[in-house]
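Much of what follows relies on a compact textual record of a protein's fold. Each token is a code from a learned vocabulary of local backbone shapes. The record below shows the convention in full.
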Amino acid sequence: AERQLRAYVSVATAKIHDLTAGFTPRAHLVVRNSGQTPAYDLIGISGMAMAVSWDALTPPSSEPIEVTATSLAAGAPTDQFISAPRPLKAGEREALIDGSKTLWVYGKMRYRDTFKVERITEYRFQVGGKAGLSGTRMAICPEGNRET
């Protein structure tokens, strides 16, 4: 019964905007509770980074870029907006198109379900690299995703 009734919070859609030199990329995530009960004390921590590979990224030295906190009713969506730490430089959009660089949107959401169990959802989406760049939709990464 607990599995059927608990909250299930995940990213329903991920889109990227402003991938043009001189503009700061922005991601729009729709986070949805697809469970039958509310998710309480939902905390989202997210960031955005670009490199030739995930392993080549410099580990973060400060707090996450974006943090949100709320409760989420059963079936309800909420929007999360994430901005890159800097504008794109000349040639970086082309590097995303040719696959030599990848831009990731990543994060973790923590919440309590109606049974007072702490749950975690980790996610990672990308454009560029092996996923290519086509429109605004981001691809889910084959690794870096987990739900408890």
Q: What stands out?
A: The first helix runs from residue 2 to 5. The chain has a mean pLDDT of 91. Residues 38 and 73 are 4 Å apart (CA to CA).
